[in-house]
Design goal:
Blueprint lengths: L2 E5 L5 E5 L5 E3 L14 E7 L5 E7 L8 E6 L5 E6 L5 E4 L5 E8 L2 E8 L5 E6 L3 E5 L5 E6 L2 E6 L6 E4 L9 E2 L5 E5 L2 E8 L9 E10 L7 E3 L5 E8 L2 E8 L5 E4 L4 E6 L6 E6 L5 E6 L4 E3 L4 E2 L1 H6 L4 H4 L12 E7 L5 E7 L6 E5 L3 E4 L3
Antiparallel strand pairs: 1-2, 1-32, 2-3, 4-5, 5-6, 6-7, 8-9, 9-10, 10-11, 12-13, 13-14, 14-15, 16-17, 17-18, 18-19, 20-21, 21-22, 22-23, 24-25, 25-26, 26-27, 28-29, 29-30, 30-31
């Protein structure tokens, strides 16, 4: 079965069946699909292993606070896990026990972590820009705030600063070796860190930073699921070029796609999907399999998708699924000739099919 997690134009959070076209509000009985929330959802996320779905709502009245709602798949129960919180981005921990979220605060953006079982919330860091990455064991978080990169416990304990010379707008990534990759000056580097589990005193960075890529250009990069290959955009004669670097051998290859805005590795790590400008108002997926590029049908993106997701694609690629779990399909949010929004599902392999689910401003693959 192929399911999408959708946010409709009216702010409903829906589960969409690509095969049947059916759409049901998350947490609602199939026989009673009336949406009763007084606030509308602005974003949603599925936990990494499909245990729950969470969404953040914008209040219908400006004096009311937003909240984060969670639907548990095992119990079919829906409950609020955070109140008076206007989060606009959600990122689950790999284990599914915790939900990290980004919200505006009195001192700038606030990165918070909520325990989805107890509702306990910790504010980890404040400032902006602010990006982060969960460690594979969900015990630590690498945070890029301003020009600093630090690693903390998931409750904000024992912070360890890795650098105060990071690039301005890049998300960190955890490597499978337990080190953190980030941009410093014009290089992509990695550095390991030890955390004092007692949280009595901060840990210390372990060793000097190791250079992964010299002359990293814009600094925008994404790692494949195995952490072996790194895709990044560099400048070649003033033209941005998408490059894949093998971190084990040091070899690199140019992906022959122009005007790249974002790029996402498939779950099996075999292909890289680049989202590129096709015309003045259209985008196109270009799928690189290591040997050749397959260009899919172009589309006009929705404003919500192109405005709130694509500028921060490195962050979203660590929390939301643009690829289906079997690495066969891609999803984007598009506009029809009449301006109506829909989720566009495109096959990344031959035959290159196109399928649609209506009324979808935001869409990602559901983790089931």
């Amino acid at each position: 079965m192929r399911y999408l997690l959708l946010v409709s134009g009216e702010g409903q959070v829906l589960l969409g069946d690509v095969d049947s076209g059916a759409q049901v509000p998350v947490g609602a009985s199939p026989h009673h699909i009336e949406y009763t929330e007084t606030a509308v959802a602005n974003t949603a996320v599925w936990s990494a292993e499909g245990q729950w779905t969470a969404w953040s709502t914008t209040p219908s009245h400006p004096d009311d606070g937003g909240h984060i709602t969670l639907h548990d798949e095992a119990t079919d129960a829906t409950r609020e896990i955070a109140e008076a919180l206007s989060a606009f981005y959600l990122c689950p921990s790999p284990c599914g026990r915790y939900l990290s979220h980004l919200s505006p605060g009195p001192l700038g953006l606030e990165l918070g972590v909520t325990d989805v079982r107890t509702g306990e919330l910790h504010v980890i860091e404040r400032g902006q820009p602010l990006y982060w990455s969960w460690s594979p064991d969900s015990a630590r978080i690498a945070v890029h705030v301003g020009h600093r990169v630090l690693v903390t416990g998931r409750d904000g304990s024992a912070p360890v600063e890795l650098t105060d010379e990071a690039g301005a707008f890049t998300a960190p990534w955890w490597l499978t070796s337990g080190t953190v990759a980030y941009v410093a000056d014009d290089r992509i580097v990695s550095r390991s860190v030890s955390i004092d589990s007692s949280a009595i005193s901060p840990g210390q960075p372990t060793g000097a930073a190791t250079t992964l890529v010299d002359d990293a250009g814009s600094g925008r990069f994404a790692l494949d699921p195995d952490g072996r290959r790194l895709a990044l955009v560099v400048a070649d004669r003033d033209q941005p070029v998408l490059v894949v670097v093998d971190l084990l051998t040091g070899s690199s290859s140019v992906v022959p796609v122009d005007h790249v805005l974002a790029f996402f590795w498939s779950p099996d790590g075999r292909r890289l999907a680049a989202l590129a400008v096709a015309s003045a108002d259209e985008l196109r997926w270009a799928v690189f399999d290591g040997d050749e590029v397959h260009e899919l049908t172009s589309f006009r993106p929705t404003r919500a998708w192109v405005g709130s997701v694509l500028p921060f694609f490195e962050q979203y690629s660590q929390s939301h699924a643009f690829w289906s779990a079997d690495s066969q399909y891609l999803v984007a949010c598009a506009l029809g000739p009449d301006g109506s929004a829909f989720a566009l599902v495109q096959s990344a392999t031959s035959p290159f099919t196109n399928e649609q689910l209506p009324d979808s401003q935001l869409a990602w693959w559901a983790n089931e």
